[in-house]
Amino acid sequence: MSYRNNIEQQNLLNQFLKENGVELPGETLGKLYDYADLVVETKQFGNLISAKDSEKFLSRHIADSLVAYVYTVRECKEIPALVRLRSPQVAGMPSHAQKTTTSAHPYLKATEGSDLIPHTYKWADMGAGAGCPVFPLAIVMPQVQFYAVEPRNMRVQFMQMAKEKLGLENLTVVGKRFETSGLTDLDFISCRALSTFENDWERARSALKKGGMFLTLKSYNNVAQLESDPAIILHKYTLPNEEQVYALVTRGNE
Question: Whole-prediction pTM value?
Fold first, then answer.
């Protein structure tokens, strides 16, 4: 069944976003559903996802991919023509499950009625695989230039095809290892369940501009020890119908 018609999965994703204060336009949601269909239904590039996960792609993988978006924009009151945030804080998230800071990333400060992030800002995703989290992020933030960096040829071919079908002009697919990609002076670098936090950070830090931000999505059990590090912020969260606790881990490049 197409995710365009999978009401149960759509409701789970939309409820997750609503609980976190985010409301996406119908056109944006539709593009997320189309991306999910491409991942689940495309076979010529190998198995992009397990059969089990293909049944919950919106509630598991799309929702997880958008966690970085929820947190990086949570302090802004409004982003015209893109998304509305119901609260400057993360709505529906228990206070004990949050670790907040007094201000957002310096690039994310915005006044009501202004664009959040100009086109000149660059965000790279290391080890993009089949495109999570970079494709969902590129869909919801069309004003940011994204780079999906992935060395495996079949994954690169799939992402290039998906980019063209979805019309994502703000996304560039880079078929190389991150260290040889040539990308530098980046505002944001992300990755999802790639390696340990320490290894991911070491790979990313030299390509970040001063004041840039590194974001990674991990199982909370694998990064709980980082809570004592003052340079690192952990945001704990859960996904729809999942018991496991996850964490968005962020670190700024001073």
Answer: 0.84
Q: Please state, in angstroms and rounded to a whole number, the distance separating the CA atoms of residues 241 and 64.
A: 13
pLDDT in tens, 31-48: 999 999 999 999 899 888
The C-alpha atoms of residue 244 and residue 241 are separated, in whole angstroms, by: 9
Q: For the beta carbon of residue 180, count every other beta carbon within 10 angstroms.
A: 10
Structure tokens at 227: 């809570």
| Alpha-carbon gap, residue 104 to 44, rounded angstroms | 42
Of 100, 65, 74, the closest CA to residue 19 belongs to: 74
Sheet containing strand 145-149, strands side by side: 171-174, 145-149, 122-126, 186-192, 208-219, 246-252, 232-237
Count the neighbouring beta carbons within 10 Å of the beta carbon of residue 60.
22
Tokens of 159: 């992402």
* Domains (range + CATH), the chain: 7-252 (3.40.50.150)
